[in-house]
């Protein structure tokens, strides 16, 4: 944790527009030279409910949400329920203020909309303010908004107040507004911004508190992207021009981004009747010669088991993405969890194989989605990118040059008509598409419409020409060849580093994580080392085929290992043990499944108290290693 | 030069070209209606001058799914009920290919019913042949979506309590722009209908009555049949949706009363295909998408769009 950071939280009701406001504010901070990281908390509700976006900004690198926050802008909830419904929803109107107080740091700043909120309705408000040394600014944000425009613009008023109280140059905000809107709406928003800013300058002493916008500078131009952008852009740069899907939170983000890009890049997007169709369309498009992708979240992905198996058996290249949310069944649609790991690794009948990547940040999303396409089209196998609600929506700045990469539209192990002539054919000209022998287990494919390439693709076991067969010798030859691809892919993956190791090389204690909270674990490890502990961390991205040797080396190098994951049944721990059974006595677990992502302090606490048997202070659970320690 | 030289190749095509060398003799039961579909399809494609390498035949699972083991072309034997989503995407991605989907009545009207409704609704430019034998054959005779009410089978021992589905009515309501019923016992009509269906721009649905002598012994052999377009007893306009729907309704009822009515029921030449609709909205490239992967040329990349995030 650095003191020189702003963690700004804007809270209101779902539908109050805090999402777009916070996006712009994050961009403004990024443009001012800071590193930013956003965290969005929202309920699975249509309107109203307690929702906020948090932006952490620092001159240092930011890899995670922080512990708590230090600046609150509490808007009134314009979608609050009728008071008669109090019994169920509680006092909704005051929630943007009341619900956020527990996590506000000592000395923090509170700006609230006095046009809509009354602190008298909040229990012990004044006492709590005094106790925690909070600085409270009541501003009639709604009044300012209404005076110059419409009530919804109280977001902008909140930003104006923030700028005045933290010393942010409003020109960054003004530029972003001018880029997003024009005419009367822009004028009104600018008036709201300025009026709010000036009001605070006239009425208050901004030096009364210690929270300020830090100053920073970037070495190169930055862009603000989410994990969903990373995945979508990775697909685009690999020549993906066919996307099919069915809406489901949180996968919808990737689907939407790619759908909007497709007309500009000569591609096709299909929103279809269900997820069986979605994945089947991707199989059909890939079979017919396009680079295709589909995806969903847990429930929708359940429906994709069938086409996933078909793609594997017919050796049709297929890339699927799965955005996890808390389950089972409908679960908690807008909350992150990592409990679809086993679902994604093992669904589909038979001895089935797939490659599964689990990126931990937007850059890894980009790189690993690109790798997913390369492996899918080279090895003719389903490749999955597994991420979650957290990574899907959190934005952070990355160098713009990350995306300055050459596109790769190659169809991989696909033949041209000229190349097909050199390949074996049956007596009437059927192409031997599924030859028993192939380099790295791959038998190159043809595309419908090519002369000299016809064959039958079938989900049944089949001969080299694709003819259905239950011959034992053919069966063994085909299974062995398909299995060989996985070994070849494991070797291929070893050529690059996709697992991230950090902390002290010769540490005594290790923390292993996967996916979206790896940045949070990394921050925790840094803190632990700063406090004199000896810790290192490993973030694993290759779920299948699993990087056994590398993980074994890591476990061997330390005395104890804590496996951190958002799952109640320790699925990732189980995956490690399935691959590396001999280390059971070394592996403990830290589990969280309350719907909220880890905070660094929760991991720090678990490591410090390792094996002490003491109760953890938050909704996390420690499970000691099998042998006990 | 096209990367797909088989597409649009101008040459005479012999019916025998569609007979595979590996398993020229199908394993369907003697007397099975599926032979009739195979013969009509071969004849239609040869007469249309379509060669084996510009055709993609996508099937589901069942006796009907064996079709592409006996029809030599590009084939995709998919999974039960899923031939349509695979087929229509193949057509979108590589639109020069002649895409034909085929499956049984359980496959198309039961497990794949949702795909059937939506593919028809979207009016994809392709042909769908449903082998309708009123029973599940491959799994040994269970009641299917088109089995008559009262049909007894091992899974419906007290007789089917369900009214059979109305395939033609469902198809036209969903949006198919060419709807016909033919029968295996009427190979010439079947061939002509397949030809029309393939040439039609939009979703063509053929409900193909295929007698099952093994598991549906009680059922009719679909003879005698009446060609509803030729018969003087029936008078309706295939271009008029309302009168077509009346004829379909009557045809569906008549089948279970022992009268086999066949023919063209609905033809809408005005409605644009899904491909045309998408192209008119800029939602689909003008050229063949798959072709682009074989051509030299620049590809757009994310960096072209990245400034929106700056």
TrEMBL record, chain A:
EC assignment: 1.2.7.3
Reaction it catalyzes: 2 oxidized [2Fe-2S]-[ferredoxin] + 2-oxoglutarate + CoA = succinyl-CoA + 2 reduced [2Fe-2S]-[ferredoxin] + CO2 + H(+)
Protein name per UniProt: 2-oxoglutarate synthase subunit KorA
Stretches assigned to the Pyruvate flavodoxin/ferredoxin oxidoreductase pyrimidine binding domain: 234-479
A UniProt-annotated Pfam family: POR_N
SUBUNIT field: Heterotetramer of the KorA, KorB, KorC and KorD subunits.
Alphabetical list of Gene3D superfamilies matching this protein: 3.40.50.920, 3.40.50.970, Pyruvate-ferredoxin oxidoreductase, PFOR, domain III
Highest taxon of source: Archaea
GO biological process terms held by the UniProt record: organic acid metabolic process; response to oxidative stress; sulfur compound biosynthetic process
Boundaries of every Pyruvate/ketoisovalerate oxidoreductase catalytic domain copy: 15-198
InterPro entries tied to this protein: 2-oxoacid/accept_OxRdtase_asu, PFOR_II, Pyruvate:ferred/Flavod_OxRd, Pyrv/ketoisovalerate_OxRed_cat, Pyrv_Fd/Flavodoxin_OxRdtase_N, Pyrv_flavodox_OxRed_cen, THDP-binding, Transketo_C/PFOR_II
UniProt keyword terms in alphabetical order: Oxidoreductase
GO molecular-function term, one example from the UniProt record: 2-oxoglutarate synthase activity
Enzyme class (EC, first level): oxidoreductase
Species whose genome carries this gene: Halarchaeum acidiphilum MH1-52-1
Annotated region (Disordered), positions in chain: 397-424, 610-629
Record-annotated Pyruvate:ferredoxin oxidoreductase core domain positions: 507-578
TrEMBL record, chain B:
SUPFAM superfamilies: Thiamin diphosphate-binding fold (THDP-binding)
Residues passing through the membrane, by range: none
Region Disordered: start-end pairs: 140-166
InterPro entries (alphabetical): 2-oxoacid:Fd_oxidoreductase (IPR051457), OFOB (IPR011896), THDP-binding (IPR029061), TPP_enzyme_TPP-bd (IPR011766)
Cited Pfam families: TPP_enzyme_C
UniProt-recorded Gene Ontology molecular function terms: oxidoreductase activity, acting on the aldehyde or oxo group of donors, iron-sulfur protein as acceptor; thiamine pyrophosphate binding
Highest taxon of the lineage: Archaea
UniProt KW Transmembrane helix keyword: no
Cofactor (UniProt): [4Fe-4S] cluster
Keywords annotated in UniProt: Oxidoreductase
Residue ranges constituting the Thiamine pyrophosphate enzyme TPP-binding domain according to the UniProt record: 61-208
GO biological-process terms attached to the record: cellular respiration; organic acid metabolic process; sulfur compound biosynthetic process
Oxidoreductase as UniProt keyword: yes
NCBIfam families in the record: PorB_KorB
Name of the molecule in the record: 2-oxoglutarate oxidoreductase, beta subunit
Lineage: Archaea, Methanobacteriati, Methanobacteriota, Stenosarchaea group, Halobacteria
């Amino acid at each position: 944790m650095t003191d020189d950071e702003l963690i700004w939280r804007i809270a209101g009701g779902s539908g109050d527009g805090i999402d777009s406001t916070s996006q712009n504010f994050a961009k403004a901070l990024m443009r001012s030279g800071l590193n930013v990281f956003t965290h969005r908390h929202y309920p699975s509700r249509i309107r109203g409910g307690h929702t906020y976006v948090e932006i952490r900004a620092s001159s240092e690198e930011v890899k995670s949400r922080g512990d708590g926050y230090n600046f609150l802008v509490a808007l009134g909830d314009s979608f609050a329920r009728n008071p008669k419904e109090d019994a169920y929803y509680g006092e909704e109107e005051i929630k943007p203020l009341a619900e956020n107080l527990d996590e506000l740091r000592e000395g923090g700043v509170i700006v609230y909309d006095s046009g809509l909120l009354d602190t008298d309705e909040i229990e012990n408000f004044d006492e709590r303010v005094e106790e925690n040394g909070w600085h409270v600014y009541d501003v009639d944000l709604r009044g300012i908004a209404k005076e110059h425009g419409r009530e919804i613009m109280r977001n902008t008023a909140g930003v104006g107040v923030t700028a005045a109280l933290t010393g942010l140059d409003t020109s960054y905000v003004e530029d972003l507004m001018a880029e997003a809107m024009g005419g009367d709406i822009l004028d009104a928003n600018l008036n709201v911004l300025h009026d709010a800013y000036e009001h605070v300058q006239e009425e208050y002493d901004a030096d009364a508190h210690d929270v300020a916008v830090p100053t920073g500078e970037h070495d190169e131009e930055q862009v603000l992207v989410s994990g969903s952008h990373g995945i979508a852009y990775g697909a685009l740069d690999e020549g993906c021009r066919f996307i099919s899907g069915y809406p489901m939170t949180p996968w919808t983000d990737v689907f939407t981004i790619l759908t909007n890009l497709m007309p500009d890049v000569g591609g096709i997007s299909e929103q279809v009747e269900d997820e069986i169709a979605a994945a089947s369309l991707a199989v059909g498009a890939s079979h017919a010669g396009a680079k295709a992708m589909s995806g969903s979240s847990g429930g929708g992905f359940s429906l994709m088991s069938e086409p996933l198996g078909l793609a594997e058996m017919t050796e049709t290249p297929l890339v699927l993405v799965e955005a996890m949310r808390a389950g089972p069944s409908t679960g908690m649609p807008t909350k992150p969890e990592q409990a679809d790991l086993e679902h994604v690794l093992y669904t589909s009948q038979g001895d089935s194989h797939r490659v599964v990547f689990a990126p931990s940040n937007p850059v890894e999303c980009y790189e690993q989605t690109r790798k997913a396409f390369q492996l899918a089209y080279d090895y003719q196998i389903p490749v999955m990118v597994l991420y979650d609600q957290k990574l899907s929506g959190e934005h952070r700045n990355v160098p713009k040059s990350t995306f300055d990469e050459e596109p790769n539209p190659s169809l991989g192990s696909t033949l041209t008509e000229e190349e097909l002539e050199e390949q074996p054919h049956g007596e009437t000209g059927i192409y031997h598409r599924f030859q028993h022998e192939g380099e790295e287990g791959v038998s190159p494919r043809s595309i419908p419409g090519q002369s000299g390439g016809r064959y039958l693709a079938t989900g049944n076991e089949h001969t080299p020409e694709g003819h259905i067969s239950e011959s034992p010798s053919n069966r063994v030859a085909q299974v062995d060849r398909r299995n060989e691809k996985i070994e070849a892919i494991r070797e291929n993956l070893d050529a690059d580093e996709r697992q991230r190791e950090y902390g002290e090389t010769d540490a005594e204690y290790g923390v292993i994580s996967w996916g979206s909270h790896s940045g949070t674990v990394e921050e925790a490890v840094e803190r632990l080392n700063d406090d004199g502990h000896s810790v290192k961390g490993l973030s694993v991205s290759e779920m299948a085929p699993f990087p056994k040797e590398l993980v074994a080396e890591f476990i061997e190098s330390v005395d104890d290992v804590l496996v951190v994951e958002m799952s109640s049944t320790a699925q990732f721990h189980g995956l490690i043990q399935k691959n590396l059974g001999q280390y059971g006595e070394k592996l403990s677990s830290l589990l969280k499944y309350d719907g909220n992502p880890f905070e660094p302090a929760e991991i720090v606490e678990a490591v410090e108290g390792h094996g002490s048997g003491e109760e953890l202070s938050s909704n996390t659970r420690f499970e000691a290693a099998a042998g006990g320690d | 030069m096209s990367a797909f030289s088989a597409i649009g190749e101008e040459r005479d095509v012999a019916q025998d070209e569609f007979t595979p060398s590996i398993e020229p003799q199908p394993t369907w039961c003697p007397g099975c209606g599926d032979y009739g579909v195979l013969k009509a399809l071969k004849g239609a494609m040869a007469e249309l001058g379509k060669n084996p390498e510009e055709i993609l035949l996508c099937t589901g699972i069942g006796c009907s799914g064996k079709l592409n083991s006996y029809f030599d072309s590009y084939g995709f034997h998919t999974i039960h009920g899923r031939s349509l989503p695979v087929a229509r995407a193949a057509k979108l991605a590589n639109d020069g290919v002649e895409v034909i989907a085929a499956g049984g009545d359980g496959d198309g009207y039961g497990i794949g019913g949702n795909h059937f409704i939506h593919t028809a609704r979207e009016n994809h430019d392709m042909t769908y042949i449903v082998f309708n034998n009123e029973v599940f054959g491959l799994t040994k005779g269970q009641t299917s979506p088109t089995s008559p009410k009262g049909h007894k089978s091992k899974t419906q021992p007290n007789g089917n309590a369900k009214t059979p589905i109305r395939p033609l009515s469902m198809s036209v309501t969903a949006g198919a722009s060419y709807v016909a019923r033919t029968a295996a016992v009427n190979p010439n009509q079947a061939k002509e209908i397949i030809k029309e269906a393939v040439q039609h721009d939009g979703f063509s649905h053929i409900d193909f009555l295929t007698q099952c002598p093994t598991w549906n012994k009680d059922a009719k052999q679909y003879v005698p049949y009446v060609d509803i377009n030729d018969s003087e007893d029936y008078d309706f306009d295939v271009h008029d949706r309302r009168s077509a729907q009346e004829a379909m309704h009557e045809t569906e009822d008549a089948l279970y009363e022992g009268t086999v009515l066949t023919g063209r029921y609905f033809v809408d030449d005005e409605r644009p295909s899904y491909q045309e609709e998408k192209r008119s909205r800029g939602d689909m490239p003008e050229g063949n998408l798959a072709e682009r992967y074989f051509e030299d040329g620049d590809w757009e990349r994310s960096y072209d769009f990245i400034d929106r995030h700056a």
